[in-house]
User: Fold Aldehyde dehydrogenase family 7 member A1 from Salix purpurea.
Amino acid sequence: MGFARKEYEFLSEIGLSSRNLGCYVDGTWKANGPVVISLNPANNQAIAEVVEGSVEDYEEGMRACSEAAKTWMQVPSPKRGDIVRQIGDALRTKLQQLGRLVSLEMGKILPEGIGEVQEIIDMCDFSVGLSRQLNGSVIPSERPNHAMLEMWNPLGVVGVITAFNFPCAVLGWNACIALVCGNCVVWKGAPTTPLITIAMTRLVAGVLEKNNLPPAIFTSFCGGADIGQAIAKDTRISLVSFTGSSKVGQMVQQTVNQRFGKCLLELSGNNAIIVMDDADIQLAVRSVLFAAVGTAGQRCTTCRRLLLHESIYQIALDQLLDVYKQVKIGNPLEKGTLLGPLHTSESRKSFEKGIEIIKSQGGKILIGGSVIESEGNFVQPTIVEISPNADVVKEELFAPVLYVMKFQTLQEAVEINNSVPQGLSSSIFTRKPEIIFKWIGPLGSDCGIVNVNIPTNGAEIGGAFGGEKATGGGREAGSDSWKQYMRRSTW
Ligand code: NAD
Assistant:
């Protein structure tokens, strides 16, 4: 079926049409749930229709998936690694189209859309190496003539629930590792990015089919909270990896805990950048700009709080206001755009509501603060001067709103950094080693990501990604995150 607009025709190259079935169940595309329309956030016009899955579709998919797990976990892990390598190769051939789709459906700018798909390719490469290193250990036994070993086995089925803002990279962080560890994957993408869920699934399914493997090794559903809840409750799913808001994440965790399942949480952030009096101000300003405005403030690692030392407060703020005035706002697919739209008209309303609350709590808007009249969900990049103690500062407003505050000492800045419920990412700009070591030490930042002289956003897949406190405590991607996707036995 043809697309409403010529510029959407590239979608047929990644297996999409104007009407799509949203569940991949045991090698078949089907769906018996409601029909939803995927919208372009830049103009709120339809891209294509998707039929979502029903709970019955889920049940059928899960039956096949748990059956497939018995086959997949017996494939030697380097061979599983080779399948993930082939997924990486398939992604390379469709990098441009998939990146364009991410930009079109989510609303982030094109280089970020392509970057997101590249991140999965990198995860594939990482996981191929990992597939030969799922090593256990030999432990000295205290008993004579005994040996003691530690061994890692697959969990079975891993459930992955993802958020709209990274509609495919987060799947990649989880699925690449889960698959080489010998697990089948059940994925529910975000309800507002169903085309990305379908396109990614088609690509993975193609690789499984080419290798004559059970298709249910990778099972996926477009849908909302009902499918998410079914995953959380399902005793056949040993690990649920959830990415999204702290509010929903807490509900999911409680449901999974009730059945003694394992949960890996990647939840909301509220990230600060501290600029010390000795910092390279130009470097800091450039970093803050992209950390606060990039992805229209819809990254979990977006910089939401800027803490400036009192002696450089005005000079740094003036430079920042200056670069904010030059931000190019527009179609995320157009070259040169830095700030695209918010993802939905609901997000735009939350921005407006947020600005009202900010004002009512004493916040002073220094720049921005309004929605932009247009068909799309555009808002102005905003800087607010506000007290670190205002209640609104403790919450994550998922929009390009930056709170600026003043401090006098490092200790005070670290206290402000740590004073919010969330603990994802943080950064300090300084040239002094003694400050850096305090910052990364036991009395420094309480976040999972502790940066120096780089922004809060952007993470390398080689490190473990995740945060503390209300961010959920999970760690994904690199380092030894793989251990969460396996069960350890001591024998
Ligand atoms: P959200 O919590 O609204 O939704 C996330 C996912 O949960 C979606 O797939 C949704 O359909 C599903 N869901 C909703 N209700 C459910 C339920 N009752 N049971 C099970 N699943 C349910 O989040 P969002 O608006 O899509 O994403 C933005 C949030 O995600 C922000 O808070 C952001 O900080 C966070 N996030 C965190 C990370 C991280 O790595 N820490 C990464 C990306 C996004």
